[in-house]
């Protein structure tokens, strides 16, 4: 029999390994600790997010407040109800195009053809209704269907053939501009039907100024938000996941209520709820639900985060790409219809100029990353509010349009720089 001896170089006993978490000692979600700490915990979490570059919508909201304060101080009537109503009317066209751009940017791609698609769609709708005798509703549906087909064609060349999206959509920018001129014919301008569907898209107020509609929309929006928050918390609690406490839900609902009711009050001081606001908000809410609450939305984020990883996860990458370009083209068609309504006609320059740039800028300024995989459709709303507020304020103080372009470009550059710095900071913080 041999006796094992311990040498000085060998430990007498092995150090016990840390105990693995068991069912009796479950791991604690850090977010739960934050919420249990009350207001101090939320402040600490907010500071940590800012430090890690997770800025969210904070810069945009602060920018909107600053813009309003500056132009109100200069003009004295920037925050008047009639001026705010005009801003809400004018954001629908570029805002809808920006919603489509958000989808494309989530893939980490770009679509340069959307201005031309908007112009071609408006031309098709105007010509069919004013010259060919089609009903306006049918004309608008045909125009949107044509845009969806355009998006599918461009998505096919990108997803199936492998042509870079930049090249495909640059070719589309030229091709659909040509289609727009061809549809309009030699005169180059087609007026929309007087007091028809297209004419009223941008100029109609619900209930002919009845204040019930604006108040009703605000109340319904707040009620639906609160119900959704409580339902989500209940489901998460039942599944054993971290859920927002009632106090946080109440605070979020209260903030939304203040904003919504204040907006309703201001609109009712003028002519009530404009139809463009209702349409735009509906599109933003629906598309936000699609992105955050459906498997299709998660697939878009997955493809934007990494194509190969998404493909290995079983996602049909080609279909996601094609469908996203269809969505962006469809949104451009809706935006083009609102532009035609604003100017009372479809012409060769509709969709040109700074339409595309403003829409891209709105998505980026609102917080959608140019690098893919991060953003939301609310970015389009916040971003276009910033751009339109700046444009309206500069118009009120009679600033030359060339200066307006330079200022808008500077704001866009600042947003991209902020996105790049934020992205680098998150990488440094191992996020």
UniProtKB/TrEMBL annotation:
GO MF annotation terms: transmembrane transporter activity
Region feature Disordered, mapped onto this chain: 1-27
GO cellular component, one term: plasma membrane
UniProt cross-references to InterPro entries, sorted A to Z: ABC_transp_permease
Pfam family, one: BPD_transp_2
Coiled-coil stretches noted in the UniProt entry, renumbered to this chain: none
Membrane topology: Multi-pass membrane protein
Keywords: Cell inner membrane, Cell membrane, Membrane, Sugar transport, Transmembrane, Transmembrane helix, Transport
Entry's transmembrane regions: 55-75, 87-107, 112-130, 136-154, 161-179, 211-228, 249-267, 273-291, 319-340, 352-371, 378-397, 403-421
CDD domains in alphabetical order: TM_PBP1_transp_AraH_like
Compartment(s) where it occurs, according to its Swiss-Prot or TrEMBL record: Cell membrane
Location, primary (coarse class): membrane
Its biological purpose: Part of the binding-protein-dependent transport system for D-xylose. Probably responsible for the translocation of the substrate across the membrane.
This protein's name: Xylose transport system permease protein XylH
Source organism: Kitasatospora aureofaciens
